[in-house]
Amino acid sequence: MTCLLASLQAHAQEGGTPYLYKGTVDGKLPVTMFLHAVPSECSGEMIYQGIYRYDKTAEPDNWLLLNIDHNGKNQFVMVETGFSGVLVLRKVGDTLTGIWLHPDGQKQMKVELKKKPVTEGQAEKYMNELDAANERDHDC
Questions:
Q1: Backbone Cα Rg of the chain
Q2: Which one of 26, 58, 81, 100 has the fewest beta carbons within 10 angstroms of its own beta carbon?
Q3: Enclosing domain of residue 100
Q4: C-alpha closest to that of 20 among 115, 108, 105
Q5: Where are the strands (E) in the chain, listed by range?
């Protein structure tokens, strides 16, 4: 697992596409999500890495690392590291919409995110946050 993450991080720094989304969970909790996509060396299919945070928390830099999978049909499942929640999202145009699920499967909240422009400087800042979250959650 550590080798895979190191490979993804090294490959990510060579290029890839950054995506910045802002929106809400439950219509009232503002969130920021950063995704970074790189093509798989084997299949060419996009591999996504990502982080998100609740913008109005006491710790604004407390990013949640996401384990992301997708089916090639603009549908994504994003599991928060530590399984504190799951996002099931669909991409239509510049929006990601869907639900956030509590691990107990009972609590669900609506998620609406809109893609925002991301500058080179912002992308670098968010990549640093992504790297820090990876190190925090996956380093020995």
A1: 14
A2: 58
A3: 2-138
A4: 115
A5: 17-25, 29-39, 46-54, 64-70, 75-80, 86-92, 95-101, 108-116
pTM attached to this predicted model:
0.86
Lowest mean per-residue pLDDT among 6-20, 65-79, 93-107: 6-20
Question: CATH number for the domain including 93?
Answer: 2.40.128.120
Residue 2 — φ and ψ, nearest 5°? -65, -40
Q: Are 61 and 38 in contact (CB under 8 A)?
A: no
Write the pLDDT tens digit of every residue in 25-81. Answer: 999 999 999 999 999 888 888 999 999 999 987 676 789 999 999 998 999 999 999
Range list of H helices, the chain: 2-14, 120-138
Structurally, how many domains does the chain consist of? Answer: 1
Other CB atoms within a 10 A radius of the CB of residue 104 amount to 6
The pLDDT assigned to 14 comes to: 56
